[in-house]
């Protein structure tokens, strides 16, 4: 029974870790480009002038 609980706890921890990593990568992908990147390619997402 202790082994079953240990396996279930490990699986829950792994699932939480994977989802946290995926969320972090998504947030990093949505980062705004720098001013220099916008000068090179003004059509990049996030470079629109207001």
Q: Helices and strands: which structural class?
A: mainly alpha
Q: How many individual β-strands?
A: 0
Task: List the total number of helices.
Answer: 2
- The end-to-end span amounts to 61 Å
Mean pLDDT: 79
Describe the global form. rod-shaped
Radius of gyration: 20 Å
The major pleated sheet works out as:
none
Strand content: under 5%
Q: SSE order in H/E notation?
A: HH
Helix content: 55-70%
Give the uncertain stretches in residue-range form.
none
What key phrases describe this protein's structure?
50 residues; mainly alpha; 2 helices
Can you describe this structure?
68% of the residues lie in helices and 0% in strands. The longest helix is centred in the first third of the chain and has 28 residues, at 2-29. With 50 residues, the protein is mostly helical. The model has no long low-confidence stretch (mean pLDDT 79).
């Amino acid at each position: 029974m202790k082994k079953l609980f240990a396996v279930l706890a490990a699986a829950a921890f792994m699932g939480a870790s994977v989802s946290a990593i995926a969320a972090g990568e998504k947030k990093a992908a949505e980062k705004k480009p720098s001013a220099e990147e916008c000068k090179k390619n003004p059509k990049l997402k996030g470079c629109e002038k207001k």
